[in-house]
Amino acid sequence: MTSEITLFVNPTAGRGRGARAARPAASAFRDAGFSVRTVLGDDPRDALDRARAAVEEGTGALIAVGGDGMANLALQAVVGTGTPFGLVAAGTGNDFARALGMPLREPAAAGRMIADALKCGRVRDIDLGRVGDRWFGAVLASGFDSRVNDRGNRMRLPLGRLKYDVAMVAELAAFRPLPYRITLDGGEVREVEATLVAVGNGPSYGGGMRICPGADLTDGLFDITVVGECSRATLLRVFPRVYRGTHVGHPAITVLRAASVELAAEEVTGYADGEPVGPLPLTARCVPGALRVVGP
């Protein structure tokens, strides 16, 4: 393996934490004997092109520094290439980093962990989700949670996670369950009234909400959490349990497992790793061993 690695940095992640995190992470890699190349971009398209170029030129690893959005962008550059992927969590949610077992907002510790793993050859292959030509590592969200994302993305204030808390309260006041058509593995069809449907390659989204607590990055299957028709009072009562993953015991919630799933509902946008992938209907496929990761 070449001793040069590439840091793929989002300087604006977590209101500037990405840029601050890159420095101690780079120092940790250099202290371990690696040469470090840093890739930035003028915009996401330019950044992705630069990351792909680094992979094509034979970098020893592509290390994303930022949050879930930056990790998701890095996946598009490295998936299927065999180039190891690492993640230094420096965003707001950091759910893919949680799924990988990486330290959160400890860039020096993450850098040391990845450097040690690279030197020891400690890599593993994990599954990814794919929607069309887009890949995701954690969760594909739709329904109430995606509408909260829609509203939050339109808001200028407040900043950070508080914006999405405000958006959730606003959406909750007007939200009604939606008719969904869910097709599993191209065969079984379920038509349900659902508050939300989350397709989990990993267990959490939204900064630690374990919406799909049983999701396993290496089993070749999605865990699909369907929150059925329920009142606002029930939703508010069950919501705190999402952080522990105990919500799946509620009678309004069903967990399905499949290697592929098609979600169809009107006027709903799908969000993968917090990034919009387009309106439903969408088909997600779990691709076993699509990504080589380095870390714990």
TrEMBL record:
Q: Which domain of life is it from?
A: Bacteria
On whether Aminoacyl-tRNA synthetase is a keyword of this UniProt record, the answer is: no
EC number assigned by the record:
2.7.1.107
| Co-factor requirement | Mg(2+)
Q: Name one GO molecular function term.
A: ATP-dependent diacylglycerol kinase activity
Q: A Pfam family matched by this chain, by name?
A: DAGK_cat
Give the DAGKc domain ranges.
1-135
Going by the UniProt record, its keywords in alphabetical order are: ATP-binding, Kinase, Lipid biosynthesis, Lipid metabolism, Magnesium, Metal-binding, Nucleotide-binding, Phospholipid biosynthesis, Phospholipid metabolism, Transferase
The answer on whether this UniProt entry bears the keyword Metal-binding reads: yes
**Family of the protein in this entry:** Belongs to the diacylglycerol/lipid kinase family.
Q: Which NCBIfam families match?
A: PRK11914.1 (NF008882), YegS/Rv2252/BmrU family lipid kinase (TIGR00147)
Which named protein is this? Diacylglycerol kinase
State the organism named in the record. Answer: Streptomyces atrovirens
